[in-house]
Design brief:
The chain is mainly α. The protein is built from 5 helices and no strands. The longest helix is centred in the C-terminal third of the chain and has 31 residues. The structure holds hydroxy diiron-OXO moiety.
Length: 175
């Protein structure tokens, strides 16, 4: 049986993952309002990944015999000055999520919960990938600056991203 402290910490992380989903949907909406449909698509896929992250934790808690306690989701930022600002905020957010995951691992270590420690490794690895993917986009946006052609080319590239449910579903439903 999972400890009360560990279950509470995972419940909080579920809320943070749902907030991430919400934040990326808000960025999707703003980018779509700027006719940057490729970037909006990228954010939509990102939001689905966050939904998966939340549900994977949700299913893990249930599998360990704990109760899931869903909490209110905070309102995300809805307006951005430009695509660079939106993606920079996404990068800042992913760095915060990496910190949250590390803190969750710290709880698992303190609670001597090897099963949760092992389960969380997937998130540790996922965060490394997420940070580097968003950082690449931020760097490209910095490179193109105000150049309309460059923005359009990047928008076209980001239109190709598709959502693929991770193979290691651990009982979570993908989308
Ligand atoms: Fe992109 O963060 Fe979830 O874990």
């Amino acid at each position: 049986m999972i400890s009360k402290k560990m279950a509470e910490a995972i419940n909080e992380q579920i809320n943070k993952e749902f907030f991430s989903e919400y934040l990326y949907i808000s960025m999707q909406g703003w980018l779509a309002s700027q006719s940057l449909d490729g970037m909006a698509n990228w954010m939509e896929v990102q939001s689905k990944e966050e939904h998966f992250h939340a549900m994977k934790l949700f299913n893990y808690l249930i599998g360990r015999g704990a109760r899931v306690h869903l909490m209110a989701i905070d309102e995300p930022t809805n307006d951005f000055e430009n695509p660079l600002q939106a993606f920079s905020k996404a990068l800042e957010h992913e760095k915060l999520m990496s910190k949250n995951i590390n803190e969750l691992v710290d709880v698992a270590i303190k609670e001597n919960d090897h099963a949760t420690r092992s389960f969380l490794q997937w998130y540790v690895d996922e965060q490394v990938e997420e940070e580097s993917t968003v950082e690449r986009i931020v760097n490209m946006l910095k490179m193109v600056g105000e150049n309309g052609n460059g923005i359009m080319m990047l928008d076209r590239e980001l239109a190709t991203r598709t959502y693929v449910a991770p193979a290691d579903a651990s009982g979570a439903t993908g989308a």
